[in-house]
Amino acid sequence: VQLQASGGGSVQAGGSLRLSCTASGRTASVGWFRQAPAKERECVAAISKSDTYTYYAESVKGRFTISRDNAKNTVYLEMNSLRPEDTAVYYCAADQRPVYTTATLSLGGRYDYWGQGTQVTVSS
Questions:
Q1: Residues 6+ apart with CB under 8 A from 68
Q2: By C-alpha distance, which of 55, 111, 119 is closest to 86?
Q3: Which residues are CB-neighbours of 17 under 8 A, at least 6 positions away?
Q4: How far is residue 10's CA from residue 87's CA, in Å, rounded to a whole number?
Q5: pLDDT of residue 108
Q6: Which residues of the chain have a pLDDT value below 50?
Q7: pLDDT at residue number 79
Q8: Cβ atoms of 22 and 113 closer than 8 Å
Q9: Which residue from 118, 122, 97 is spatially nearest to 21, judged by alpha carbons?
Q10: pLDDT of residue 98
Q11: CA–CA dist 65, 123 (Å, integer)
């Protein structure tokens, strides 16, 4: 499975962006991760195959929304009220395993497939 992430860009604080992650085949769980310079990679949001489980990092709750269109093999990350600290390279990742708990969605090690990353820059 190949993943194509898109939708990144440069916006001012308070602005919005929508990221898309399109897979070449069917996927189960999909997560959005980000990595800023000199910082560890973190999971910001993730979703299970049937939307039963969703995960959001505390720092993005209420501002980011993850959703998926399985017919299009695409997962979206709607990002609103963006802050300078949201600046990072955003990656999508996917697997084909079942999910039993929300917490496991945030673990990078569960994902087998990774996209190439898309830059998000938020200026103050």
A1: 30, 47, 51, 74, 75, 76
A2: 119
A3: 7, 8, 9, 11, 79, 82, 120
A4: 9
A5: 93
A6: none
A7: 98
A8: no
A9: 118
A10: 87
A11: 21
The answer to whether the beta carbons of residues 113 and 1 sit under 8 Å apart is yes
């200026």: which residue's tokens? 123
Are 47 and 66 in contact by the 8 Å Cβ rule? The answer is yes
C-alpha to C-alpha distance for 89 and 102, rounded to whole angstroms: 24
Q: Give which of 26, 32, 78, 34 is closest to 50, Cα–Cα.
A: 26
DSSP annotation string for the chain? --EEEE--EEEETT--EEEEEEESS--S-EEEEEE-TTS--EEEEEE-TTSS-EEE-TTTTTTEEEEEEGGGTEEEEEE-S--GGG-EEEEEEE--S----SGGGG-GGG--EE---EEEEEE-
CB 55, CB 45: distance < 8 Å: yes
Q: How many residues does the chain have?
A: 124
